Please model this.
Amino acid sequence: MFPVRHFFLFITTACFITADQGGFKGFGETLPPYVLYPTGFGFGIIFLIVFTRFRKALKPSNWVLKLGMDRVLIKYRSCLNSHLPEEDPVVVEISFSEIQWVRKTNVARLNLRA
Model:
């Protein structure tokens, strides 16, 4: 299987080559290289940041709420903090016997910028 990190490296390299070759169709003839190089570098960095976060969001350990037959598990650690130690408590367990009542609520938002 093709490793994911190689895919990200490939896309970042493609951004740099595009900037180097004056790619960005329609802009290559009018923009000088001192504008295209930083633009390609910026796109590469943004791509790495966005897809690193996207990859973390797809992990199986990224969940917020799990319902069992007799309890509710609520995870309050974001997937972006997955590098923190596993020993830290990150899940609250509430058994159904501890919940006195529950009701459904509807929230309406008003647009005051009209």
